[in-house]
Design brief:
Blueprint lengths: L1 E9 L2 E7 L4 E5 L6 H11 L16 E8 L6 H6 L7 E8 L5 E5 L2 E3 L1 H8 L3 E4 L1 H6 L3 H12 L2 H47 L6 H13 L1 H16 L5 H13 L6 H30 L4 H21 L4 H67 L6 E13 L2 E10 L7 E2 H4 L2 H18 L4 E5 L7 H14 L4 E5 L3 H4 L4 E10 L2 E8 L2 H13 L5 H11 L1
Parallel strand pairs: 3-13, 3-14, 8-12, 12-13
Antiparallel strand pairs: 1-2, 1-4, 4-5, 5-6, 6-7, 9-10, 10-11, 14-15
Helix pairs in contact: 5-12, 6-12, 7-11, 8-10, 9-10, 11-12, 12-14, 14-15, 17-18
């Protein structure tokens, strides 16, 4: 529960610090006194967005700090999961800087707004008039039924499977679309791949073929050059080899005379051996060289095939063609695997459907059992709130769709009077009836919920007299289960509180500010008397106020 609240530099509040107790607390004040400001400050602590208009003094930062006693609400796991320091007396602080930036802290650890909002779900429920209208929303109606049906854990398990089911369905649809779109593309890619495979390309092949082409295409010139070179090298009297041997023989005669001549002799010997080897190589090449028009045609055709493929695929090398061949193979392999993926994913989806249907059936059965309980309890409470002939008709309509909370649709119908047909809440219930129904719902949920604090913001709209007294009694009863705050204009409700706070405006040096004060017993009598009779408090109003308080 919330045990204290301090506000600095927020809206019309310059500085305020107040302590709260458990039980039933009342907040009253004239219209415009600042009750909505107090709720706004609490909203900021719970993670609502803020802006510079929140600052009273635009040059200073706004600080709102609330302390919560949470030892009884099993929140240690939440703190551990979010890497926060747990304290039985947890402090939440929100700061809004003059720059417009906002900061939030839980027990002095900085947190983002989402973490703050997640924690707030376990701390306070602020019931506004807008929330009364939300009672007509099917999702809100389901939450009420599911609370009584103890469906939350089952729904959480269902939602976990539903999330993976939806992901798998999206994947499956994408695969089916890809398979459909790739039909013609697959046929063309297969043609391209077969064309490349049949070419039997090899890395470095183009360079070898171009060299072979040059040889075969110029065979006569090459052979003539080789034979002429052999004649020059090996002619008996004037050939290079003959002359080298003559030089070698001449130098051999003087080699012994000095190391210089010996070195020259060795070098000419080496040249002679090398030239002899070259001559044999020329002979070899000449003998192997054949005029082969058929082979020239084969080489020419293979080169032309390579050039055509390079032009088609807009590349310049065989290696690039080989890479395209590998890529096409991978694409086709992936397309071949799609059918297998579709079959596997379809099977997984079918298994998830079985699990989802099992959870949905359990949720549905629990709701069937909970609806009479909810209906009877609502009728019982509303009879005491001046609605003796109220009836509810809640029908679950099974659906084939997987909703976020199961497979049910809901008709939540209502009749306030005998002889009138059932109708949708938002169409047939008046404002006062909606307020009473919502109070009854909250009173019932208080028994099933572990929420520490509930704030009613003018839930008494449209009621008065004995009905207001009964509403106050119900809120008083609820405060035995949880901390209850009621912002009210009705003295009958205000008198039921364990403590009473008044919001009022004061003016100092031409500056107006809102303040919140805990009233003493005497002040409380005066406040309720003023609520009964206005600014001029009569003796009868004072006596009536004392009666209500007693």
């Amino acid at each position: 529960m919330i045990t204290s609240l301090s506000i600095k530099n927020y809206a019309l509040i310059e500085k305020l610090a107040i302590d709260f107790s458990k039980g039933f607390s009342i907040i009253t004040g004239e219209t415009g006194a600042g009750k909505s400001i107090i709720l706004g400050a609490i909203g900021l602590v719970l993670g609502k967005r803020a802006d510079l208009t929140s600052l009273k003094n635009k040059e200073e930062k706004c600080i709102i700090e609330a302390q919560f006693e949470i030892s009884k609400y099993n929140l240690k796991e939440f703190f551990e999961a979010n890497d926060l320091d747990y304290e039985d007396e947890t402090i939440i602080r929100r700061e809004i800087l003059p720059s417009g930036k906002s900061r939030a802290f839980i027990n002095d650890s900085p947190v983002n707004l989402q973490e703050l909002q997640d924690l707030s779900l376990f701390l306070i429920d602020i019931h506004s008039q807008q929330q009364t209208q939300e009672l007509s929303d099917e999702s809100v109606q389901f939450k009420i039924i599911d609370a009584i049906a103890s469906n939350y854990e089952t729904i959480a398990a269902y939602q976990k499977v539903l999330k993976t089911y939806k992901t798998d369905k999206s994947k499956l649809n994408a695969l089916i679309k890809k398979q459909s779109d790739s039909g013609k593309e697959q046929e063309y890619n297969t043609f391209l791949l077969n064309e490349l495979v049949s070419a039997q390309l090899k890395s470095g092949e183009q360079e070898e073929l171009e060299a072979d082409f040059e040889k075969l295409n110029n065979v006569e010139i090459i052979k003539d050059s080789l034979d002429r070179s052999l004649v020059i090298a090996n002619e008996d009297q004037f050939g290079v080899f003959h002359n080298l041997n003559e030089i070698k023989a001449s130098l051999q005669k003087i080699a012994a005379f000095s190391s210089e001549y010996q070195n020259i002799f060795e070098r000419i010997t080496s040249v002679t051996i090398e030239f002899d080897d070259l001559s044999k190589e020329l002979q070899n090449s000449s003998e192997k060289l054949l005029n082969d028009p058929a082979q020239l045609e084969i080489v020419s055709q293979k080169l032309q095939l390579i050039f055509n493929l390079q032009k088609k695929h807009q590349v310049n090398s065989v290696d690039e063609l080989l890479q395209i061949q590998a890529d096409l193979g991978n694409v086709l392999l992936e397309l071949d695997n799609i059918e297998e993926e579709i079959a596997l994913l379809s099977k997984e989806i079918e298994e998830k459907i079985i699990v989802l249907d099992g959870f949905a059936a359990a949720i549905h059965e629990n709701r069937i059992n909970a609806i009479p309980v909810l209906s009877n309890q609502l009728i019982s409470i509303l009879e005491t709130l001046g609605m003796p002939n109220v009836r509810f008709k809640m029908e679950l309509l099974p659906s084939e769709n997987y909703f976020q909370n199961g497979k049910d649709e809901l008709q939540f119908l209502f009749s306030a009077n005998k002889g009138t047909d059932f109708g949708l809440l938002k169409k047939v219930a008046s404002g006062g009836e909606m307020s009473r129904i919502m109070l009854a719902v909250k009173a019932i949920l208080a028994k099933y919920s572990k929420l520490p604090t509930l704030i009613f913001d003018e839930i008494d709209t449209g009621v008065s007299g004995e009905i207001a007294i009964r509403m106050g009694e119900i809120m008083k009863e609820m405060s035995g289960e949880m901390q209850i705050f009621a912002i009210t204009h009705l003295p009958q409700i205000a008198a039921k509180g364990d403590s009473h706070f008044k919001v009022f405006k004061s003016t100092t040096n031409d500056h107006t500010q809102s303040e919140l004060k805990l009233l003493s017993q005497e002040e409380r009598v005066m406040e309720i008397a003023q609520m009964l009779s206005g600014a001029n408090i009569s003796d009868s109003a004072l006596n009536h106020a004392k009666e209500l308080l007693n």
